[in-house]
Amino acid sequence: MEENKTDIQEEIRPSQLKAMVSLLEDDDHEIVSNVENKLRSLGTSIIPQLEKEWMEKSLIPDVRTKIEDIIHSLQYELLKEKLVEWKTEGAEDLLEGMMLVANYQYPDLNLKYLVRKFEQYYYEAWPEFKENLTEMEQVKILNDVMYNKLKFRPNSKNFHSPSNGMINVVLESKKGNPLSMCVVYLLLAKRLKMPIYGVNLPNLFIVTYKTDKEQFYINVFNNGIIFTTDDIDNYLDQLNLDRLDIYYQPCSNVDIIARALRNLIASFEKLGEYKKSDDIKELLKAIEN
Predict the structure, then answer these.
(1) Is the pTM of this model over 0.90?
(2) Which pLDDT tens digit goes with each residue over 57-102?
(3) CA 247, CA 206: separation in Å to the nearest integer?
(4) What is the pLDDT of residues 163-184, one digit of tens each?
(5) CA atoms of 192 and 207, how far apart (whole Å)
(6) What are the boundaries of each domain within the chain?
(7) How far is CA 210 from CA 93, 149, 197, 239, in A?
(8) In this structure, are residues 185 and 146 in contact, taking their beta carbons and an 8 Å threshold?
(9) Of residues 9, 7, 85, 103, the one with CA closest to residue 47
(10) CA 269, 272, 278, 279 torsion: positive or negative?
(11) To 10 degrees, what angle do helices 61-88 and 47-54 make?
């Protein structure tokens, strides 16, 4: 099937595409529908050409809207493919996974921009790190960088906003939800070679500092407060939940991205944007299979 798509993509010429776009103005709804389906069938490599047609000044608004819808649906399919590819290849880069989540709303967002952001944060932090620091001293310094130097804050006021799950918006606003705040903390810690990992607690995402000799937990959403296994025991008891190992140990990058997608589903549903929540459910299904 993919080979057939590629063949069609290679054969389509700019003049042919322009002719197809012109048919989107037709009064016959069946013709317009067939053209839209044909354009979608050409696959994601046709996006640049469609974007060029979209920029034509002579294009009537109704056709421009139709092209926007086709581009969005193609970008969505491309995003699904990239998410599956990210998982299949090992899901090693958490930042790339978070970028793909944000690509749903910001398709032009690229990894280089995000990497540069974290490089800036790293250079803010690394001069503070000296040799022979204890685990607690390392976390204290990282907390100081996160909350005082970089001034990241929990977004409690707009907790359920979809923007809280978009890594680019979080880096620009310095505000996020528990998961996105933890991701920033995790990625900065990784660059500083600190053994900090995500932990998938019910209703709250946290991180753990874990070595062969020691383990404790950090609530990034609450100014980096440190707590213990006993605190997690009490938390689970209050929720009447079993003390499962997954609530104490590091989770995978796929787990983190799946949770980010679930958060987005809940956010869009609270806003009544059910088409978007359905889209995100499909993305979640794609990486959970």
Answers:
(1) no
(2) 667 778 778 888 888 888 898 999 999 999 999 999 999 999 999 9
(3) 10
(4) 999 999 999 999 999 999 999 9
(5) 15
(6) 2-88, 94-288
(7) 20, 25, 8, 25
(8) yes
(9) 9
(10) negative
(11) 150
